[in-house]
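REQUEST
  id: r-88c1
  op: predict_structure
  target: SsrA-binding protein
  payload:
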Amino acid sequence: MAKKKKTPDNVIVQNKKARHDYFIEDTFEAGLVLEGWEVKSLRASKVNLSDSYIFLKDGEAWLLGCHISPLQTVSSHITPNPTRYRKLLLHNRELAKLFGAHQRQGYTIAALKLYWVKNRVKLEIGLAKGKKLHDKRATEKEREWNRAKQRVLKNA
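RESPONSE
  id: r-88c1
  status: 200
  body:
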């Protein structure tokens, strides 16, 4: 019986599409500026990170395309916007590194995963370079080869 790979308890959601489409060269941990209803929705894992990306403007980093679905119990006096811009909290040296790399040809900044650290929501972002089709095929071949190796070693 095959066991399913378990994600850690603190991980809310992962962006597997980003790891498939990009080579991740460097990762950073960023805080998020959230509203109360967003935190409640994150606790219920009502979030989609697959089409999100990071936008740099005026010395700040912003998360775009992250869809946090509002719960039915959201207060009636606010109107939640599930895809609003969310500010990322990073140190100045990290922002400078991201700005410098983003200006180079072919680099983008992708959101990789959301997780909890001491009751605070953190976003792992990655400095990424796009993969070509042949790179994706090579990655898939390598993954299948590693699975086959593990099967042979397990049966031996």
